[in-house]
Specification:
This protein is α/β, with parallel strands linked by helices. The protein folds into 3 domains: about 10-75 and about 170-330, TIM Barrel; about 85-160, PK beta-barrel domain-like (M1 Pyruvate Kinase, Domain 3); about 355-480, Pyruvate Kinase, Chain: A, domain 1. It is about 40% helix and about 25% strand. An 8-stranded parallel β-barrel has the order 1-2-3-12-13-14-15-16, surrounded by 9 helices. It is elongated and about 85 Å long.
């Protein structure tokens, strides 16, 4: 499905978007990727949504990526005898392993691994950071704290520990079951929550066993500190600003977002900016001006994708939220300043033949009357390298691999077209010309750039670039093969 923008849109499915008609409407409105949140819904419900997405994909003949987002290890306090208590600044409050219902002086924290990692001066944040506790002293089964920011604390509220790297695996037992289930369904991307270290990603990769690509969600300070190493072993990144804004000062999140987006662009790996992008549209048909500015800022940075969470999963206006994102993207990308920002932030990386080929393709396209860059790819790597260049012309990714076409639905600027197995470069050029015309990017009198690797169907062999006419008669008369 042809889009009038380069940035991709990820829409989360949920109670407000769990029918075939709604999923189709969301895709037609602009959703390129559908997110299945494994924190909510049964396996049966998730499987049904997966089937409906694939049916929409088949009916519209449009590759769609499916992202399964694992819950990750959730840390929560226990329960209170009265359901909740009020904590005041300066008071003492104890966390321990005792499962007796809590009161105004203490509550259970059923995670001994947290106590093992804490030390005096560490902080614990409860209920999305609304309550802030500072550890005065601690042992293997307790932590005596001072309340630095008070408020209402109630049953099962979440706990964040920003100061230390916890001895917790990124994959809980539930995550392992969910991962195997999602891979069995045939999802395209697996998102890992609360990644802290490289080993978390490597463990997930062993379990995925090549059945899906891996996105690391950056939502902890330790992941920001180890980001270069995490990026190297990940297939993509999600800047999950919700928990990141809880565990770090809120003013630190925007510069971190910009830095991580640029590093992902340089590495030619897709990056999603997520969380609270159009939060008000859960209940309102119109976004706030601040939200529109937030979405615009991510697009100006050159992010690959922007994401809707509750807006499309549980909100009252899921279609309008997708349409809003689409309209903002089209408006931003038509602004001359957008091209100036994108090109000024381009980080040239030239370490291989493929790097040189895609850079040359972009430069040729921008200095002549080229209508599109058509790249043949089996794994998706060549298309990702072309997208890293952020060219001014459309990118048509030609692939015989359904999985590659679906995964590329997350990559900036790529329009995926399925093609058969190829044996000769002339055949590739003809197919590229036909695709460019069929997609409406070029006419018979126009030219395109074609990149490919010979021998075909071998990842990492991009070694040919040709400027070709879209007229098949001219192709056959000028090609020496």
């Amino acid at each position: 499905m042809k889009r009038d923008r380069n940035v991709k849109i990820v829409a989360t499915l949920g109670p407000a978007s769990n029918t075939y008609d709604m999923i189709r409407a969301l895709h037609e409105a602009g959703a390129d990727v559908f997110r299945l949140n494994m924190s909510h819904g049964t396996h049966e419900e998730i499987e049904e949504r997966h089937k409906m997405i694939r049916q929409v994909e088949k009916d519209l003949d449009s590759p769609i990526a499916i992202l399964a987002d694992l819950q990750g290890p959730k840390l929560r306090v226990g329960e209170f005898a009265n359901g909740s208590e009020e904590l005041e600044w300066g008071q003492k409050f104890r966390l321990d392993l005792d499962d007796t219902p809590g009161d105004a002086t203490r509550v259970q924290l059923p995670h001994p691994e947290i106590f093992a990692a804490l030390s005096g001066g560490s902080h614990l944040l409860v209920n999305d950071g609304k309550i802030r506790l500072k550890v005065a002293d601690c042992g293997k089964d307790h932590a005596n704290c001072i309340v630095e920011a008070g408020g209402t604390i109630s049953n099962r509220k979440g706990v964040n520990v920003p100061d230390v790297v916890l001895p917790l695996a990124a994959l809980s037992d539930k995550d392992r079951r969910d991962l195997e289930f999602a891979c069995g369904l045939g999802v395209d991307w697996i998102a890992l929550s609360f990644v802290q270290r490289v080993e978390d990603v490597e463990e997930a990769r062993r379990l995925v066993w090549g059945r899906a690509a891996i996105i690391s969600k950056i939502e902890k300070p330790s992941a920001v500190e180890a980001f270069d190493q995490i990026l190297e072993v990940s297939d993509g990144i999600m800047v999950a600003r919700g928990d990141l804004g809880v565990e770090l000062p809120v003013q630190a999140v925007p510069p971190i977002q910009k830095r991580l987006v640029r590093k992902c662009r340089a590495a030619a790996k897709p990056v999603i900016v997520a969380t609270q992008m159009l939060e008000s549209m859960i209940e309102s048909p119109m976004p706030t001006r601040a939200e529109v500015s937030d979405v615009s800022g991510a697009i100006y940075e050159g992010t690959d994708a922007i994401m809707l969470s509750a807006e499309s999963a549980a909100g009252q206006y899921p279609i309008e939220a997708v349409q809003t994102m689409n309209n903002v993207a089209v408006s931003v990308e038509s602004d001359p300043t957008y091209r100036e920002v994108i090109e000024a932030s381009r980080n040239a990386v030239r370490t291989s033949v493929a790097d040189g080929i895609v850079a040359a393709a972009r430069e040729i396209a921008e200095t002549t009357e080229i209508k599109a860059i058509c790249c043949f790819t089996s794994s998706g790597t060549t298309a990702a390298l072309v997208a890293r260049e952020r060219p001014r012309v459309p990118i048509i990714a030609m692939t015989p691999m359904t999985g590659a076409a679906r995964r590329l639905s997350l990559t900036w600027g790529t329009q995926c077209v399925m093609t058969g197995e190829l044996e000769r470069f002339k055949q590739a050029v003809v197919n590229a010309a036909r695709a460019a015309r069929a997609q409406g990017y070029a006419g018979e009198k126009d030219q395109i750039v074609v990149t490919a690797g010979v021998p075909f169907n071998q990842p990492g062999t991009t070694n040919i670039l040709r400027v070709a006419p879209c007229n098949e008669r001219l192709i056959f008369s000028t090609d020496p093969e």
